[in-house]
Amino acid sequence: MSVLIIKRVQCTLKRLFLERGQALRAVSLSCLMWAGQGMASEYTITAEYTPDPDNPGNTMFINTSVDGGVCVEVPRLCTPDRLRSFLTQFGAVSDVGLIAREAYANERSGAFFSMDGAFRFVTLTNEATGNTRTLRFALAGYGGRYVLNKPVDGTKGHDQLWWGKTDPGGAWWQAPIPCFGGATPGYTNLTFDFFWRTPHEKRSCVKLPVFDISGPFQYTNVNVAYSLLTPNPVDMDAGTYKGSLMYSVGPGADIDFGDRTVASDHALIINFELRVNTSLKVEFPAGSYRAVLQPEQGWENSMSGGKSAPSLSARHLFKIAGTGYFKAYLNCEYVIGLDCAISTDTGTGSSQVPVDISVSLPASIVQWPGSSPALKVPLKYGAEQAAVFKMGGLHGAQTATMHYDVNAQHVTEMMRYPGSTYSGLATLIFDVNL
Known about the structure:
Elements: E1 2-10, H1 29-38, E2 40-49, E3 62-63, H2 70-73, E4 84-87, E5 92-94, E6 97-98, H3 100-105, E7 111-116, E8 120-126, E9 132-147, H4 154-159, E10 162-164, E11 180-183, E12 191-197, E13 202-209, E14 213-214, E15 217-229, E16 239-248, E17 255-256, E18 262-263, E19 267-276, E20 279-283, E21 290-292, H5 298-303, E22 312-332, E23 335-336, E24 339-345, E25 350-354, E26 356-360, E27 365-367, E28 377-378, E29 387-406, H6 408-414, E30 423-431
Parallel strand pairs: 1-30, 2-19
Antiparallel strand pairs: 1-21, 2-3, 4-15, 5-15, 5-18, 6-14, 7-13, 7-17, 8-9, 8-16, 9-12, 9-15, 10-13, 11-12, 16-19, 20-22, 22-29, 22-30, 23-24, 24-25, 26-28, 26-29, 27-29
């Protein structure tokens, strides 16, 4: 008498995609002022963690965001500090340009930049469970392209336009203190691309015009670099965690272009979507496709002396590893109620008896909801009757047990047909797709 067991592991990984709104184009000073009062630029940072039971030491989210800006154009500037960058949807413009004497008197009338680079804490909430985690985020640099109204003679001409409050050399690509570093991804006789790193605090970085720069003087392709410190995904429930963070834009705000230059948006909203995938690895040893049911004491001892019918059982040890949630259930060749059954041909029909199939899992895996130990948990026919389990932190393979039992009452039925063989097919399904 035998029950054939077939194992199947299903794992579904979901990839998230970035959604972006339309960029707002600077048209005039009045339009920009109106937009600055009511519009916001948005960007979504996505990251994903898929645990690997064969490498439990891997506890890093993978940033899956769509990058833009300096880290794409000049990767060497970002790689050492693991920075990423993105293009914002806003720009800024001074319709009348920059007036040198005004800038000397008040740096906020020059090419003024101030950005809050301090780390901020962002609360993320699991959409399904409501559990929360915290990440840390900081703006780490900014860049873009300034656009002149009148052409100059190449990079030399650009350099002659500026002097820095703290860098008399004046070359625009060289960041003025307290900003640092610098890069020039490209330039023309009307435009100059740049990127400056910022300190982890809110301080101004200023370039002053040597001469009056006629308007409109614009900033386009505004991009920011950032540093992201994600939580440890190992102790996070599977699912998608979301949160958001807003930086104000405008005079005296988190992102400040000074008094002369007006930004097109009033805020930069950064959305976060962190996806924690479930991982499951189940390994049965060779020969586990077949379970032979018999009395624990053997047939001879159990049937000698006119004893009543014994119960039958079989066991399979297997290895299981992973993290997150999964469900387990059965598909059956023969079904009695919600149990798989074994059957024999009696010559005049068939005789079928149910088999109690259950599973015992390591202590790190509990029943869900709740946290009851997963000891001899019954498995039933159909996904609607699935038992659901929650795995603790990612761990390597641990030993678990499958149990197959036919109680004595049903063995009495089987003994009505001596010499017969009862068999049946049960498909055991572990599924991470709840």
